[in-house]
Amino acid sequence: MLVLLVDSSTPAVTAALVEVSADSVALRAHRCTVDARAHGELLAPEVDAVLADADARPADLAAIVAGLGPGPFTGLRVGLVTAATMGQVLGVPTYGVCSLDGIGYPAAAGEPVLAASDARRKEIYWAVYDGAGQRIAGPEVDAPDAAAARARDLAVTVAVGDGAHRYADVLGLPVRAEPRYPDPVALARLAGERIRAGAPGERLTPLYLRRPDAVASIGRKPVLPPAVTP
Amino acid sequence: MADEPLILGIETSCDETGVGIVRGHTLLADALASSVEEHARFGGVVPEVASRAHLEAIVPTMDRALKEAGVTIADIDAIAVTSGPGLAGALLVGVAAAKGYALAAEKPVYGVNHLAAHVAVDTLEHGPLPEPAVALLVSGGHSSLLLVDDLARGVTPLGATIDDAAGEAFDKVARLLGLPFPGGPPIDREARAGDAGAIGFPRGLTAAKDLAAHRYDFSFSGLKTAVARWVEARQRAGEPVPVADVAASFQEAVCDVLTAKALDACRAHGIETLVIGGGVAANSRLRAMAEQRAEKHGIRVRVPRPRLCTDNGAMVAALGSHLVASGVAPSRLDLPADSAMPLTVVSV
Ligand SMILES: [Zn+2]
Prior knowledge:
A: alpha/beta, 27% strand, B: alpha/beta, Nucleotidyltransferase, domain 5, 5-stranded mixed sheet, tRNA N(6)-L-threonylcarbamoyladenine synthase activity (chain B), cytoplasm (chain B)
């Protein structure tokens, strides 16, 4: 089964095609561009390119998997809306996977690991994975020192991901080089059971973790100078 | 007519998620989801709230539009989408959606200018637009006067607001009168019972000294402040605020400036057609005053019905249809959402 993967939760804009069989997930084509400011421009041409690379047409797709974030608001939506609209046209199911799982799951090597991506505003999105790659905490958004304290409580010995690179000194943990961004094959593996079972598609709701910045109006400032009280 | 291209339009530049479908100049579907109620308690559109709402609404709104038109996406010949100007995050959802639909259905996509779409929508109501024409576009996000030489290729900006948009002034005045958001409809309603000549509110950029540099520009910030001062002075004096008279006098000042400048532009350029679009074009006084004043000069005013004046997907589809009919090439898949898209660019 040919499956499209998209993730736009980090500065890396990723599209990939994988072949999902009964016992394996094989990468067929992959595009990734790191540019935090151009998710909207980059993703569609990447999808087009991976289809061309694999000599496939959209109608050949059996399912679409999207990274649900967490990720800074604007770019994250590009991947999700791309997956949702393509799924609608093609009549194929869409599945969501926590994007941090695409970093923490493939990084698992027997010891607990902290996966982190940049949340801007001096914070990170983070989650902790056990030695087998199972998420045991998160996803959450915190200042790096607060996330590091939580990670130490969970006996984490190593960090991974772009957010870990960025705040390596604050986290005080050795940082593994790869994966720096969500790995598409890992995302596909994590959705593998649903894909193979032909599970019903899911509505792709982003893991925002933050509320929108908005202040309810609290009345109006007067334009006249304050009245002089006698 | 059945062989005219079938065009789908997507609009997400502000708080309305719109999907429209047209064939030629015939409107087949106009599905809309609005997040306006989510913004009401903030007294204005909150960009992140709007973007979240677009993401949730786009797929169901598309479903409704296709059902309404009785077509499938495979029947569509091209997809048009507002690529600017507007709220960056909101535009991004619509542009990405249009690309997703275009990719999956293997159709061309056109990234189009929201303001040009406000002009094009009138073709669904009144047929092909005579060119050149003058267009007055007034809403909560824009107040522009344009010369439409060729709607498929380029529009010349004549003037625009130098501060608040006209619709913004309606929202702010409504708020200080204790009327709900958005302010246009309640002010229009209140004004019907009021005396438009009761209070002489200022007409921005109409004095001789301003006209030299700002003949076709607008300013509504001074008017808004004048209304606030007048209302506050009443309140301080412990007197009741005559809401209907304030609404009518404020509305009269806005409509006076808008129509005077629009008709001045028509006469100066020897143009016989004035198109009015944008949410404020739904204002009953603006329509009546424009028609009254235009008649004297033999100028024809075209205003689409209110539902088509506010933001919607049909206007984007109408512009897309005009672009396809004019042989304009589609956009590339890397087309950006451009929150500051200039008026001179009709499609990218
Ligand atoms: Zn508009």
